[in-house]
Amino acid sequence: MFLAHTATGRRWALVAGAAVMSGALLTGCSGGGTSSSGGHSTDTINYALPANFTPNWILPVGTASHLNTNNSSISQSLWEPLIAYDGSTGEVGWNKDNSLATAADFAKDGKSVTITLGNRHWSDGKPITSRDVEFWFNLIKANKADWANYSPGKAPDNWTSLKIVDDTHFTIAFDKAYNKQWMLANELSMIRPMPQHVWDKTGDSDAVSDLDRTAAGAKKVWTYLNKAAKNISGYATDPLWKTVSGPYTLKSFSTAGRVELTANAKYDGGGKANIKHVNLLPFTTTDAEANALRAGTVDYGYINATDLSQEASFKSKGYTVKPWAGWAITYMPYNFNNPAMGAVFKQLYARQAIQMSVDQTSLSKVIFNGTAVPTYGPIPQGQASDFVSPEQKKNPYPFDTAKAKQLLTSHGWSEQNGTMVCTDAGSGDDQCGSGVAKGTKFEMQVLSQSGSTVTDNMMSALQSSFSKTGIKFTIKTAPVNSVLSQSGQCKSGDPGCKWQLSFFGTAGSWYFPAYPSGDSLFQTGGGSNFGSYSNPAVDKLIAQTTTSESPAAVQEYSAALAKDLPVIWLPEPDYQVSVVKNGLGGFAQDSLANFHPAMWKWTNK
Asked: What are the pLDDT digits (tens) for 365-415?
């Protein structure tokens, strides 16, 4: 995912998933607290999950194929983060009501931080202590390669130690001084205290011990927890998931994607649930979800940007339309190790020709009905910030298919039957480039999100503009969970390296934490660098963004990737156009793409 934010802040915030029939779905929704007369129960809310996207992970540690915002939001409702750094209050910052920590005091030299925990308890009555943080820390240290948020040199590599001071205080030491904003918002916010007294074992019948305190033991515990987390049908009954710290507990979790949360009666934090029952509802298509809105069986849903002309109709049914802006970028990653096209993708001129064939302005206006903004680099451009470089703002590669075609022909390609073919192989300046064989056709396939008319329309528009450059672009679709699982990092000879381009959804490919560094996405070996992009000069720039307090470091990184094109940049749309039942309030729509059900409340009852 994954703008996340993982999620965490670094994650794929994707629109897609559940394989259920819309008729059955509407039947399932009809009893969810919404009366036939159009009113609603004060203790229930029905929230529509993005179309064709099935929540599929409960463990509060993300792996590469499970980094999506819905998973993260559900998990954080059950297990509160150490530091909830989000936009739930309307501004991105530390929301201490939704956090287990009450203070983070950095040492004067910037090389360590001491965290203070609040007087909090697990739902079984046991206190939440520094030991629960150490448990998470030990699991991540021993299993970092499996953690989707891992990037070499970053957490947990740069956390040299965690020392428990007492039950409510601990100190994390760093390998050097870091940008405090980055460390707080992007690294410390990833820490998820977990119930060591329940989870520190290797089997259901095992007694809990201190297994996590050795690397070998931590690996066994990790294996056990991940195996349990793959059993989606068992989430609601497995004792593992009963001990929580958050404002909600889990009532049900179906493989079809429906999730029911109920208020945690033992919760003792500042973010207590206002609404007792929360039903998270899956849909196969946005049309099915819009029909549920019209029927009154959804309290908080969405419509396509193309349906904004119907706003008056929804208002007449007692809804308010609220666009939900996101702190994100949208793109299609290249697979630089694909055996057929990887060598082509590694040629900067080829990526330039591809980018010049993307008419972001028209896509934003026509496909997204004006609810998207062109994005020309790695920093979100839908919201003003000091992070975007002038180079990214001005678009280094404006739309021009004629110039794109000329760029290819000047590098050894000739158009044959409408498709460019490499006719002058070699590594010279006017040849196809290293590794590109003579006769190679400029044909690339995208594995794209299914179930979204907006996505289908955008892919068709791209197919048309690519054809004008002489690039054949074919489209294969699948639910996003499947797209994610088929688009991992790989080596050219691996069976799973057949994908060439991937697209994870029109709600935004990647939602950042507050500080938009690219260590997970574009650093060599980054946990969510799915296409295996690698540029040593960019690695140095990314490192600078994590240590320097100056916005100039991020701007240099922004400029470099706007020019080097590690992915195909695409318009960044609003996360969604929300349709909210009148009287439902108490919340801001988080620009980091989390939803926070504990904050929702019926204000007119």
From this structure: 999 988 899 999 999 998 888 899 999 999 999 999 999 999 999 999 999
Q: Which residues contact 422 (CB under 8 A, 6 or more apart)?
A: 412, 413, 432, 436, 437, 438, 439, 440, 441, 442
Amino acid symbol at 110: G
Q: What is the DSSP string of 225-292?
A: HHHHHT-GGGTTT-GGGG---SSEEEEEE-TTS-EEEEE-TT--SS---SSSEEEEE--SSHHHHHHH
Q: How far apart are CA 466 and CA 484, in angstroms?
A: 24
Joined tokens for residue 57: 């992970």
Q: What is the CA radius of gyration of the chain?
A: 24
- Residue positions counted in the chain: 605
pTM score:
0.76
Tokens 């609040």 belong to residue: 118
Q: Is the peptide bond before 156 cis (omega within 30 degrees of 0)?
A: yes
E strand map for 28-158: 44-48, 85-86, 93-94, 101-106, 112-117
List strands edge to edge, sheet with 328-333. Answer: 510-511, 328-333, 567-570
Sign of CA dihedral 140, 141, 146, 150: positive
Give the residue carrying structure tokens 């919760």.
267
Alpha helices in 378-511 (DSSP H): 390-394, 401-409, 453-469, 480-485
In angstroms, rounded to a whole number, what is the distance separating the alpha carbons of residues 174 and 158?
5
CA 407, CA 433: separation in Å to the nearest integer? 13
| Cα 219 off chain centre by | 26
Query: Cβ of 362: how many Cβ atoms within 10 Å?
Result: 14
Geometric angle at alpha carbon 446, from 444 and 449, rounded to 5° = 170
> Rounded distance, CA 216 to CA 65, Å?
24
Per-residue pLDDT tens digits for 80-101 = 999 999 888 888 889 999 999 9
Q: Are 354 and 556 in contact (CB under 8 A)?
A: no
* 439 class by beta-carbon count within 10 Å (0-12 exposed, 13-18 middle, 19+ buried): exposed
What CA–CA distance (Å, rounded) separates 8 from 166? 26
